[in-house]
Amino acid sequence: MTTNQVIVITGPTGSGKTTVSHYLKDHFNIPQVITHTTRAPRDGEVDGRDYYFETPASFATKHYLEHVTYSGNQYGSSREGLAAGWSKSPLVSIVLDTAGAITYARELGRQAVIIYLEVPDNRALVERLAKRGDHPERIKKRVASQEYQRDQQLPAGLVGHATALVNDDWTQTRAKLDALVHHYQQVSDSAN
Ligand SMILES: Nc1ncnc2c1ncn2[C@@H]1O[C@H](COP(=O)(O)OP(=O)(O)OP(=O)(O)O)[C@@H](O)[C@H]1O
Ligand SMILES: Nc1nc2c(ncn2[C@@H]2O[C@H](COP(=O)(O)O)[C@@H](O)[C@H]2O)c(=O)[nH]1
């Protein structure tokens, strides 16, 4: 029997979660589970590809495995989204804040492979957001949020469950990701 697994990519804002998720899709064909949010799309973001962009009313109609408020906006991931991902591949990825990652660890146990990304230089994180094109007011609000501060450290609920990975040098990050994916693909194969 195939063991379905989900690579949960978590960490502070700007740490590179989305970049890692795109890398896993482009280089290993690992589909990303698309989540729902009430925040407005950033330049270049597409509904159904980057997020399902919702109004507060449409957000409330979905069935979530978990949902959170992050810097004033709502985000949620559904069991249906996970099942749709697993119908394409036994190994999928999802990008979540640390509260969501803790829920996945609790609900899915060993099926959730958690990667916590960190960037030791806090200023570098904020510079990345500006470079990404985030509006200065939005960066200010996000950096002031309780969720931003919380996600700067690996939470106690993920200790022993998450692999921490420093993402300050993309070449090194890629090498570490390649090793991790090969490991989990072998685990998945040996279960078949
Ligand atoms: N190793 C790296 N070195 C320099 N820049 C990077 C690195 N990894 C990612 N970036 C850049 O940092 C910016 C933020 O990355 P990304 O959007 O993937 O972060 P995120 O963790 O998904 O952020 P958020 O939680 O705010 O959505 C992007 O412009 C990305 O290209
Ligand atoms: N717990 C959840 N966190 C989610 C979900 N979708 C995204 N996120 C996280 O929210 C913040 C902000 O995202 P952004 O795209 O506005 O920068 C970030 O940490 C994402 O990882 C979700 O469904 N559940």
TrEMBL record:
Q: Does the keyword Kinase apply?
A: yes
Sorted keywords for this record are:
Kinase, Transferase
Gene Ontology molecular functions: kinase activity
Output the Pfam families linked to this UniProt entry.
Answer: Guanylate_kin
- Provide the catalytic activity annotation: GMP + ATP = GDP + ADP
| Record keyword Calcium present | no
- Report the SUPFAM superfamilies cross-referenced here: P-loop containing nucleoside triphosphate hydrolases
UniProt-listed InterPro entries: GK/Ca_channel_bsu (IPR008145), Guanylate_kin-like_dom (IPR008144), P-loop_NTPase (IPR027417)
User: What's its job?
Assistant: Essential for recycling GMP and indirectly, cGMP.
Q: What's the protein name?
A: Guanylate kinase
Species assigned in the record: Lactiplantibacillus plajomi
